[in-house]
Amino acid sequence: MSAHSHVDGQLPHEPEKATLEGRNKVLAFWLFLGGETVLFGTLFSVYLALRGQVLEGNPSANELFDLPLVAAATFILLTSSLTSVFAIQAMHRNNVKSMINWLIVTVALGLGFLVLEVYEFIHYLHMGHGFTTSAFSSSFYTLVGFHGAHVILGVVWISLLIGQVYKKGLNTVTAPKIYVAGLYWHFVDVVWVFIFTVVYLMGKVG
Amino acid sequence: MAGNHSNTAAEGKGKRHRVEGPQKHIVAYIFSILLTVLAFATVAAGEINSTFTYILLVVMAALQVFVQMSFWMHMKDRGHLLPIIGIFFGVFVVFTCVVMAEFWVWW
């Protein structure tokens, strides 16, 4: 079937695109990301439609959101996107050790982001902002929670990939998986850019 | 290290292989951070009128997403026509949904 290693035991320059299987995997993943865009788009539109629907006495977006906390989460996720780029670059240099290290940093930053998000949600719950409090709170938790679930999936996925590369090494089968996980991680970061803009910053403005 | 790369480059079916450095990714990162800080600062200052702030925030988010998709997701590289079409189709559907939610639901 597909060549698992290069003729002289050296990987090609871009191992993720060396086989047809790898190229197809990358293309199919882009189609998946198109579908994910639609998924988040519908959640964003529901949030935009319902964000003003707060009952009397319940906290509004402006009272709820804590900008320094969101800024910290944004900084963490942005940095993790950079470290995952470094992991892909290490893969292109055929430096497995450096790649694994950068992936571990990426996973650690993802976990840091999740800790902040869980703390944030608990904080909101104490302020009387539960999932069923208002249409605003339901759409908020669905949108931001869906993004958080994507971060959890990314953390688990990349952790498993680290284990697989550690066991089986970097070859034309494992390389596309790493590359595609990197794409996924950037996509999750891109979605967060819209969340902090549309949900948090615009919630503070009006 | 360097000798290693020139070997791979030579056997790469006549294609030129250039191992890219981290510089442009660090520039993209700094640019993203600057846009983020600017967005947060605009809201934290809170003096500007809100329509203008809205537009400014959306423009900065779009810029940041453009930087990340073109550099970090390699969309500016060769052979990314289908991904670009796929993502733009997704964006088109999203835009339709958002317009529907903002202007249709409550009118």
Describe this structure in words.
The complex is a heterodimer of chains A (206) and B (107). Chain A is built from six helices and no strands. With 206 residues, chain A is an all-alpha fold. Chain A has one domain (15-205): Four Helix Bundle (Hemerythrin (Met), subunit A), CATH 1.20.120. In chain A, α1 packs antiparallel against α5, α1 runs parallel beside α6 (174-205) and α4 (96-126) runs antiparallel to α5 (135-168). The mean pLDDT of chain A is 89. Chain B has 107 residues and is mainly alpha-helical. In chain B, 74% of the residues lie in helices and 0% in strands. Chain B starts with a helix and ends with a helix. Chains A and B meet through α1, α3 and α6 of A and α1, α2, α3 and α4 of B.
| Low-confidence residue ranges of chain B | 1-16
How many β-strands of chain A, per DSSP? 0
The major sheet of chain B is characterized as:
none
The CATH topology assignment of chain A is Four Helix Bundle (Hemerythrin (Met), subunit A)
The CATH architecture term of chain A is Up-down Bundle
- Structural class from helices and strands of chain B? mainly alpha
| Shape field of chain A | elongated
Q: Beta-strand level of the residues of chain A, as a percent range? A: under 5%
Largest sheet of chain A: none
H and E string of chain B: HHHH
CATH superfamily of chain A, by name, is Cytochrome c oxidase, subunit III, four-helix bundle
Please state the structural category of chain A. mainly alpha
Overall mean pLDDT of chain B: 76
Distance between the termini of chain B: 64 Å
The end-to-end span of chain A amounts to 58 Å
Question: What is the H/E order of chain A?
Answer: HHHHHH
Give the fraction of residues assigned to helices of chain A.
Answer: over 70%
Shape, principal axes of CA atoms of chain B: flat
The first-level CATH class of chain A is given as Mainly Alpha
